[in-house]
Amino acid sequence: MILSAFAFSVMSLFVKAVGQTNIPVLEIVAARSVVSLLISYVTLKRQGIAPLGNRKLLLFARGLVGFLALNCVFYAITHLPLAQATVLQYLHPMFTAALAVFFLSERPTKGTLICIALSFVGLLLVVQPGFIFSLAPSGIKQFAISVAVAGAFGSAIAYILVRKLSTTEHPLVIVMYFPLISLPISVILLWNDFVMPQGITWLYLLAIGLTTQVGQVALTKAMQTETASRATSFAYLQVVFAMILGVVFYYEIPSFSTLIGAGLIVGGAYINATWKKGNNVKKPSS
Q: Domain residues of the chain, as ranges?
């Protein structure tokens, strides 16, 4: 899951680069879907694995929910301050932990709960959203906030579906269904708004697809070996990786509060990674 968080951070770096051009968001989604779909399909065929999988209805649901959640996230980013949209999106580990109790019968360990709590506080310190840190949060659009929360909830549902599918499906089959569903929908919605990429933008779009593939495969494999709540709680590390990449490539020097927040996130991840299941079990009294 740490690899997944890093891959998605690198992906965001390239998305930011493409975002400085006039390429529409749906075109970015379509481009990354093309790359991911081709890699997944070719790899599955070479390994002799049926690309369409076994539980097609659940796989379709995973792809559709993922696409809807992604569009909610992009809508929130374009209609809210980035910091606010980021905080709302990272509600998904909490939603995942709650849904896992009801649909997967998975109870998070105390280590995972501590990780989620520390990471969310750390996230607030990193991004410092105005609607929490400002006394006058004017201009906040309630609909966009609702969409952002819906995106986080949709992401949680997608992770629950991935966890359920991971017991019967190959990771690449699960990964392939996201671009399989999102590509045709993106193309239809994009339609006449297509903009021909120029120069290095082609490489950026390719990099987005490649890093997305790495992130999705790593995420899916993590879901096969870890509980949903524990795996998704590591997603907060993406904030730390993004901060480091921002320093390296955009010379964005973090503030003191950002460093404290990053420390809390890393500390939470360490607790989550080293917490033993036995720590949750009460010792019998002698």
A: 2-275
The vertex-161 CA angle with 243 and 237, nearest 5°, equals 15
Tokens of 151: 């995106």
Q: Cβ distance 150 to 72 under 8 Å?
A: yes
How many Cα neighbours within 13 Å face the side chain of 262?
A: 13
Residue 282, CA atoms < 13 Å, CB-side half-sphere:
3
DSSP per position, 64-103: HHHHHHHHHHHHHHHHS-HHHHHHHHTTHHHHHHHHHHHH
Residues 6+ apart with CB under 8 A from 9: 238, 241, 242, 245
**Looking at residue 285, what is its pLDDT?**
41
Q: Do 226 and 96 touch, CB atoms closer than 8 A?
A: no
Q: How many CA atoms lie within 13 A of 16 on its CB side?
A: 12
DSSP for 143-201, written as a single string? HHHHHHHHHHHHHHHHHHHHHHHTTTS-HHHHHHHHHHHHHHHHHHHHGGG-----TTH
Q: How far apart are CA 223 and CA 102, in angstroms?
A: 17
- pLDDT per residue as tens digits for the range 251-277: 777 778 878 888 888 888 788 878 865
Which pLDDT value is given to residue 244? Answer: 82
pTM given for the model: 0.76
Q: What is the mean pLDDT of residues 198-226?
A: 87
Using CA atoms, how far residue 145 sits from 67, 81, 99, 141, 156, in Å, is 18, 10, 21, 6, 17
Instruction: Please say if the pLDDT value at position 165 is more than 60.
Output: yes
Closest CA to 125 of 237, 20, 263: 263
Enter the tokens of residue 81. 């301050």
